[in-house]
Amino acid sequence: AQARLLPGKTLETFDFAAVPMVSKAHVGAITAGDSWIGKGDNILLFGPPGVGKSHLSSAIGLALVENGYRVLFTRTTDLVQKLQQARRDLALESAIAKLDKFHLLILDDIAYVTKDQAETSVLFELISARYERRSMLITANQPFGAWNAIFPDPAMTLAAVDRLVHHATIFEMNVESYRRKAAENAKGPG
Length: 190
Ligand code: ADP
Fold this sequence. Notes:
The chain has helices at residues 24-32, 53-66, 76-88, 92-98, 121-130, 154-166, 178-187; strands spanning 42-46, 71-75, 104-108, 135-140, 168-172. By secondary structure, the protein is of the alpha/beta class.
């Protein structure tokens, strides 16, 4: 499989106690897939850097692959660059259509895409094309209010957010960075 998941990031190695708002049972139900993937529903993971959004999303992807789904994990900026190249080659539509083979597209770090990164309307076209047909799992370290920095104009941001949240499960992982906490614990008390 060409899922490009993150090595070693599994549900077994994910410490659910660190994110009390994300229940292990809920994630277990999500990895069954059938209740949402078949309908093209989405999952959105919000939270500051280091709280485990990439780890959890890749782990969910792995569990879905094990359950027979086709999944692609990609940093959003990488995919946007590929789609922009496809558009320059007049092949954007077919590039987006090719992604249909994946039941789930995991877009990590959507907020790292910026308008300066040339024209990002390709992202909007992708979201529109998959709407109510193919699922996406998107991670973001910025709340929707900051997404105007991602899309070329506010109307497009609104339309994109609208499509993404219409049928979505949203996890707000507003906890302390796991990395920082681990580093502090390693220092020991005092
Ligand atoms: P984010 O995507 O939110 O920036 P990452 O998933 O990259 O965060 O997590 C940063 C590092 O901390 C990774 O090595 C990840 O495996 C680890 N990590 C974060 N949260 C957890 C957790 N709840 N359990 C186990 N490891 C975690």
